[in-house]
Design a protein that fits this description.
The chain is α/β, with parallel strands linked by helices and about 100 residues long. The protein has one domain: Rossmann fold, CATH 3.40.50. The chain has 3 helices and 4 strands. A 4-stranded parallel β-sheet has the order 3-2-1-4, with helices on one face. Helix 1 links the parallel strand 1 and strand 2. The chain is globular, with a radius of gyration of 12 Å. Bound molecules: nicotinamide-adenine-dinucleotide (NAD).
């Protein structure tokens, strides 16, 4: 299974991604704007994994979302951005094509 994670370079999101890559056979696409809170060093342990991919995207910016390859993805999604990003991550606002398919 491939899981979309937003805010995955933050405190909680990076821990979730490390857990998924280290403890499951699932794949992760991490979409993060890399604000002051985003730190890709927290993902160094998994960054070489074939099951991990990162795209620098502001999920509040519709045009950036439309350019991101991951926007074609339609599967499970975990949102861990800051509060402003959380509002953008609500499916009705920005990510209608990313809602779980089942
Ligand atoms: N850490 C806690 O103890 C805790 C407790 C309760 C709730 N929360 C909530 O959980 C969420 C995650 O917390 P955290 O501590 O991991 O936050 P964090 O600030 O460490 O990480 C947030 C991540 O979201 C990214 N981000 C912010 N805006 C974005 C945008 N527009 N597009 C893409 N990426 C964006 C940042 O670059 C960063 O990597 C927050 O909403 C927080 O309020 C956290």
């Amino acid at each position: 299974m491939k899981i979309l994670v937003t805010g995955g370079a933050g405190f909680i999101g990076s821990a979730v991604i490390r857990h998924i890559i280290d403890s499951t056979t699932d794949s992760v696409v991490n979409l993060d704007k890399l604000t002051y809170a985003g730190n890709l060093e927290s993902l160094l342990d998994v960054s070489d994994s074939e099951r991990y991919a990162f795209e620098r995207v502001d999920i509040c910016d519709r045009s950036e979302l439309d350019r991101a390859p991951a926007t074609t993805y339609n599967g499970p999604q975990l949102n861990w951005p800051s509060k402003q990003g959380i509002a953008c991550a609500l499916p009705k606002v920005a990510l209608p094509s990313w809602t779980p398919s089942s």
